[in-house]
Structures are given as structure tokens and as C-alpha cells.
Amino acid sequence: METQSRGEFIEESFRQVWTSPYTSCVLWLAAASASLLVWIRLPSPGTAIAILGAVAAIMSIREMKHTQRALWTLIVFALLAVEIRSITAARERHDKDQIEDRKRIDSDFEAVLRQNQQAFEATVSRLESVVSGVKAVAATTENTLASITGGDSFCYFAAVPNVWTGSPRQYSFAPEESSLITNELWHGIMLGDPIPPPP
User: Fold this and answer.
1) What mean pLDDT do residues 102-112 have?
2) 0.85 cut: is pTM over it?
3) Burial call 40-71: b when 16+ CB within 10 Å, e when fewer
4) Cα gap 78→72, rounded to integer Å
């Protein structure tokens, strides 16, 4: 029986402390202080909701007068405002971080583009030197072929004196008239002394 009366005593003591106006004042001041603290030092999203849950639990199990309910309701709305501010601030931080990340990625991409452009220009420069070398070889080949084949030179005829009859020193060579070759372009060339006739 004594334990029962001791248990009843503990329960009655707890009820008196819980329903005491001093306890109500201490709980409200603690909740108001927590609300003020999270209002000043904005927490991460979810912290104000956790405090709001604790306040709602206290409100549901305490018997309160209308004035106390109004004061606790002010704390609830303050914590809701803190949570909204916290979510908005977190979203703004996230957006700012995203913008900074995009700027960093863009600058990294521009650096890669510059590096690729420099590599491309170096490759083009090397290709231009190869092409100029190939052009030089082609020009040398063309000059060699021109030397072998006569290139832009033209063919000319030499009139050789008739070595078996007479010894005229100069001859005139005149092909048939044509629109491409005129008499002035053809001339005979004296080539040394006549060769003696064969025996």
C-alpha cells in the first residue's frame, strides 16, 4: 500500500508542477526564447518545424486558459514564419550556389575551348609548314620536268647547207603560209662550213 501511495504521491506532485502557472510561464519563456533564437540565427530548414512540433505537443497535453492559448499560438506562428524564412534563405543559397557553379563551369569550358583553339592553331601551323614543303617539292619537280622536257621553250629549225652541192652560206626557210606561223618567225641559221661529201 505504501508503494501505491508513494506512486500516487509522485503522480500528484507531477500534476501540480505540470499545471502550475510557474511551469506554464517557464515553458512559454523557453518556447519564446527558442523562437527568438531561431528568428535571429536562421537555422536550416526543418529546425523550426522540429521546435514547432514540440510546442504543439506541449499545447496538446496542457490544459490552458484562453490567454495562454493565444500566447502559445503566437509562438506557433512565429515558428512558422521562421521556417518559411529558412526555406526561402536555403532556396536563395541554393540558387546562388547554382549560379556560381554555372559560372565556374562556363569559365572552365571557356578555358578548354581556348586550349582547344590553341591546339588547333598549332596543328594548322604545322600543316601549313607541311603544305609549304609539299609546294616546294612540287615546284622543284615542275622545274626539273621543265628542264627535261624544255618547259616553255619552243622548237626551232636550223637549215643546214646542202653539203653535196654548192656551198651557199645562208638559207631561208619559208613554210607554207598559215595564220599561226609567219615567214618572220622562221629563219635559217648558218651552221659552220659544209661537210664534205662522202667518198
Assistant:
1) 93
2) no
3) eebbebebbeebbeebeebbeeeeeeeebeeb
4) 10
List of residues 6+ apart from 29 with CB closer than 8 A: none
pLDDT at residue 199 greater than cutoff 70:
no
Tell me the per-residue pLDDT of 124-177, one tens digit each, with 9 for 90 and over. 999 998 999 899 999 888 888 877 776 676 655 555 554 445 444 444 444 444
Q: How far is CA 151 from CA 143, 147, 164, 180, 181, in A?
A: 8, 6, 36, 20, 20
Dihedral Cα 80, 86, 91, 96, nearest 10 deg = 160
Nine-digit cell string for 8: 500516487
Q: Is 186 helix (H, G, I), strand (E, B) or coil?
A: coil
Whether 44 has a pLDDT exceeding 50, the answer reads: yes
Collapsing DSSP to helix, strand or coil, 134 comes out as: helix
DSSP 155-180: ----PPP-SSS---S---------SS
